[in-house]
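stage 2 :: seqdesign
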């Protein structure tokens, strides 16, 4: 991964499950994920895979992360669409929010 988004993807991944950082810094990971979603069409296939791996890690850690983030952010007032499921991590943790992990990779057509 050597494009301009690699560092942001790695920082996102490093924050997941890290309760050593403040809840406010953990809220930043939600913003970072939204920023990455806006440019997902610019990511390489490897970056999309890595982002999806981190998304799965966030889903696996939804309960502890939502409890940690709730110290700084009230999920109940989130006005983000459900497609940005990370802003509704409390619902994900409780199994109440459908989420969609969509990884679109380019495929080489065999001619």
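stage 2 :: out
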């Amino acid at each position: 991964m050597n494009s301009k988004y690699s560092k942001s993807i790695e920082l996102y991944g490093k924050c997941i499950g890290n309760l050593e950082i403040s809840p406010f810094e953990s809220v930043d990971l939600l913003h970072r994920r939204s920023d990455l979603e806006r440019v997902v069409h610019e990511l390489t296939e490897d970056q999309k895979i890595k982002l999806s791996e981190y998304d799965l890690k966030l889903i696996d850690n939804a309960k502890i992360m939502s409890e940690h983030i709730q110290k700084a952010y009230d999920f109940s007032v989130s006005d983000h669409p459900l497609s940005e499921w990370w802003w509704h991590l409390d619902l994900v943790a409780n199994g109440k929010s459908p989420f969609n992990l969509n990884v679109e990779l380019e495929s080489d057509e065999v001619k």
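stage 3 :: structure notes
- The chain has a mean pLDDT of 87.
- The two ends are 29 Å apart (CA to CA).
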